[in-house]
Amino acid sequence: MALEDLGYNDGFEQFRRKQGLDSFEIGRVIAEHRERYIVRTTEGEFEAEITGNMRFTAQSREDFPAVGDWVALLTYDSDFAIIHKIFPRFSIVKRQAAGQSGEIQIIATNVDCAFLVQAVDRDFNINRLERYLAICYSAGVSPVIILTKTDLIDGQRIAELLESIKLRIKDVPAIAISNETQDGYEALKRLIKKGRTYCLLGSSGVGKSTLLNKLSGKAIMKADAISRSTGKGRHVTSHRALIVLEDGGILIDNPGMRAVGIADAAGGLETAFDRIVSLSQNCRFKDCTHTAELGCAVLEALEKGEIDRSSYENYLKMEREKAHFESTVAEKRKRDKAFGKMLRNYKKAMKKNKH
User: What is the model's pLDDT at position 348?
Assistant: First the structure.
């Protein structure tokens, strides 16, 4: 398999030349297992680790390889290699990690398009779709909404769900498919282009693994829909994995996400809620919170029915989460800076005492 079949392009090749990486193998990370990586090259697949220096100098999780990354590596055995460098990423799909740590969790890198997958029988939730949209827009990734399991409801209900999406979410394609009848698959396949990378985002049990198997024509991922005891989706996919489809598209599957935390630093919320943000420019006060202020253009539009109340409430909730996350990150950086200063002073004192 050529590197181009994995999504390699002129931008990555220029970086390789500028960095003088001629003596290294080039490959793409296709799976990750607790800081052990599977990297695919023109020579095959290698289990890989990063160098000690990369581990020591890493400032955050974003400095470690992730599924989708292009890396320079040296092979030491028929199936083992050491990663020495990560190529610059043109997109990073990420979310806030669970808990109050202020950490970022990378979902996938170098992604062109994200398929936002929801099942129509029990998982459908436009508020959650807006969260996924914010993540996509922050990463500069084009979103496509996919509604699965349409064989479980009638045509009228499918039309109602698609219309509800259209009313709240503008300019985002939405495709209704059935893994059982194959309805909608031709429309979906027409969106997938050779050499472009797509990732699947959605909760457990919505049919992501089945969708991947159908698109690939192989039973690559174990598919198991709903737990009978809880009625909730099971985590069938236990790790992120990159698969090259027969038609040349590249698909990254992800474990189901119960929580979709916002870690937005690049205008994802503003794009996802562009109507509200546009109205806010006309508010009387620049620091308007759009909750109770006089002269708030957003509240006026809400009262007139010009914006959807559920979307407005979802926007406020996500803005609060974003502000909380940013303050947590700022506090963490402050603590890390103080610890670094203490460590440097300790080393100076030890050196002075030694002399």
Answer: 72
